[in-house]
Each structure stands twice: as C-alpha cells, then as structure tokens.
Amino acid sequence: MSTSIKMNPNQKKNLLKVQTLLNEKEFGKAIKLATKIKDIKLKESYFLLAMAYKGQGRMDLTIDTLEEYIKDGEPDFFTYRILADTHRDMGNIDEALVAYEKLLTFEEVPKNPIQIAKATVLYQSARFEEALKELSEINVDDTKTNLLVKAMWAGCQNALEKYDSVKNTLLKEIDKIKDVAHEMEAGEVKLLAFKLNYELARSLQCLKSSESEVSKFLYPCLKLLDPTPNQALQLVREVKSVEKTDDSKLYHLSIKSCAPMQISPTQSKRCEYFREYEVYADSIDECMEFICEYEDDAIDGELGLGKSGIVDHFSGELKGVYFQSHRIMK
Length: 330
Prior knowledge:
CATH superfamily of the largest domain: Tetratricopeptide repeat domain
Number of helices: 15
Low-confidence stretches: none
Helix content: 55-70%
Radius of gyration: 24 Å
Structural class: alpha+beta
Distance between the termini: 52 Å
Strand content: 5-15%
Largest sheet: 5 strands, antiparallel
Shape: globular
CATH class of the largest domain: Mainly Alpha
CATH architecture of the largest domain: Alpha Horseshoe
Mean pLDDT: 89
C-alpha cells in the first residue's frame, strides 16, 4: 500500500465528510462512508475507519483495521500509538507493551510520554519491578516529568511495601505541584495532585502514623476528583477503622445540596446538585454523617436526603462510603 496515491476531488471530499461525522460523533455514518472509501488504500481512510470503530466502542475492529494497515502499508508513529492505547484500553497487556516498544524505535519523537505510558501498563498489570525499571530509564529533565514519574514510582513502591521510601521522597516533592500547574491542564493537575497525596497518605497509613498525619494528605484527595476514586474511599475506611455491627447494612442513597457554579468571570450562582452514594452503616443518620466528610462545600443545613434503599447481600468489614457517583448539576 502506498501513501503517495493521489486523491481525486471526490475522494478528498469524502474523507473530509468522514472527519466531520467523527467530530459530530456520528460514528455509524462515519463507519459506513469510511468503509466505502477504504479501498483507495490511503492511510487517512484506515485511520478514520479505525477512529469510527473506536468511537462506537468496537475495539476489536479498531485493532483489526490498524493491523491491516500495518501489515500492508507504511505505518508511522501515530498508527502504533493508537494501536498501543487501544490494546491497553482492552486489557491486552502484552500486545500493548509490544506496540509501545515499537513506538520507542521511532526517531525524533518525545520518548518520555511513551515510557510513562508503558510504565503505566506495567503498573496496572501488577508488574511493579518492571514498571520501576522503565521509570528509571526516563530522562527526568523538568519538574513536571519528575512529579509524573514520582507519582507512579510511589505507587509501585507502596505495592512492594517500601513505605518508608515513599514517605521520605514524597514529603520533599509534594509541594512542587504548584510550580508546574501553569504547564498543565486543570484536570491533569488535579489527577497528579490526587496521585501524590494518595500515595503519601497510603504510605503513612501503612506505617501506622496518626490519623491526623494521614488525613493531612488523604482528605485533599476527596475534593480533587469527581467522583472520589475507590482506592481513596477504601483508605478513608481504613483510617476511620469503624467496624461493622449486627445492624450494619449497605444503604443506597441520593443526596441533594447546593454548590456555586461560575457563569461568568465575575458572576456565580448557586445550583442544586444531586449525587448517589452507597454507605455501609447502622442507620440513615450514620450514613449522612459519613457522607458529610465528602460534602464539605455544601451549605450547613442544606445537605438533604433524596431517597434511600438497602442493597442486599453485602458484608463489608468496615463501615463508611463504598461508592460515590458524579455530581449531577441542575
């Protein structure tokens, strides 16, 4: 397959139309049109078809389309990047690692993001020693990269029960987040701050530090991401260590409150929001006490119960919050 084939005006028009359909999230229509034009054997037609399949969540067909191009064509960096990320998202660990390794052979492309992505896959598949080896080979030449690497390094070290190492390192690094905030998107800053605070809190809890010392880093985690990730919910339960009683049940509740929403640079208004929780407790009142820890921006007296029910067949060991949904603003 040659990427030097010239398109006629009609083919160019169809490729642009597929791109427009993708932007509009009309994936079914994009697939139909992209399939028709794939026979012109251009890289763009395969990419667009693969992206349309991915938009529909048809990951197997995404991979098949990319591998068809790789087999017969002249694959480039972006082909392998999409392939690697798709394998990663599907949990095809070995295939993802092969594709990331291929990415590292391309000249004149940034290596750090690929090495971090590869280390992430290794970490998520509990191959912590391999992840640490990959992280050690990253050229850390700026504060942002250093913190990204340290966050994942800390996760690996905690998993290997090297808690003192995490504590001693992150206590020196965690305040540097503010130095790189201007270089990152707001969501990226929050995610990085969550990882650093969580891993530090986790190491302190495992070292049996005081509740106040652990909470100093754990409780900021509850405000950074929406919803609060499960590992932070679990760590809060461990810190509180409130054991179940014979009356404990898992309650499914919806709560409502108010929160400020910025409508212009100078104006904000209070909007009602709703959120669901699953809380293991002895009563509705105890549930609301646990929930209040996660809703400190609600006005006093305005946190209310929307509805509640009991989830059958649950037996946790510690009372507390087990699930928190996204906020729904109205």
